[in-house]
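SUBJECT: A protein chain and its fold
Encoding: whole-number codes for local backbone shapes
RECORD BEGINS BELOW THIS LINE
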Amino acid sequence: MNFGKGVAKFERICLGSFAFWDCKKLKKATIERGVKNISDGMFCATALKKITIPGSVTKIGEDAFSYCQNLKKATINEGVKKISKDAFSNTTLEEITIPSTVTKLGKNAFRWDSTEKSSLKKVVIRSKNIKKWGTMVFGATRDDLVIYVPKSKKAEYEKILRSTNGLDFHAKIVGKKW
């Protein structure tokens, strides 16, 4: 990982859970290709504004980016298989694309935990192989949220999303051919 000028670049590094928890001055981070996991709570409650997750990462841990209330943009590249519980909960993401390689979406993965509704306006789910869906993946949503799913999975995914996200789930679900 690289956190600015004057910081050594390591070939291999293992950072434990909640390594940067509540670092309010951490506004930018680069996750280098080769990193395989983002630990639980790794960037929880930091001031990150955007993040790109390389395809070498297969698992985004629980609470990895939760409570990053300045996080407006996250790019998750092909290769990620699991987005864990609360991974991006309580962020200000406006849109997210879930790559085709994802097979597990954890409980509350993108949920906003407040009386206000999520800031998400657009979600693209490219995966046709999500085998495990947690409850409240998106939770209470804006009335104008559009979730794009593979056309061949629209009926299945819509049923799952409507039955697991609670009464305040108002998203429009649209099937797209990828």
Remarks:
- Residues 6-11 have pLDDT under 50 and may be disordered.
- The chain has one domain: 37-176.
- The domain at 37-176 is CATH 3.80.10.10 (Leucine-rich repeat, LRR (right-handed beta-alpha superhelix)).
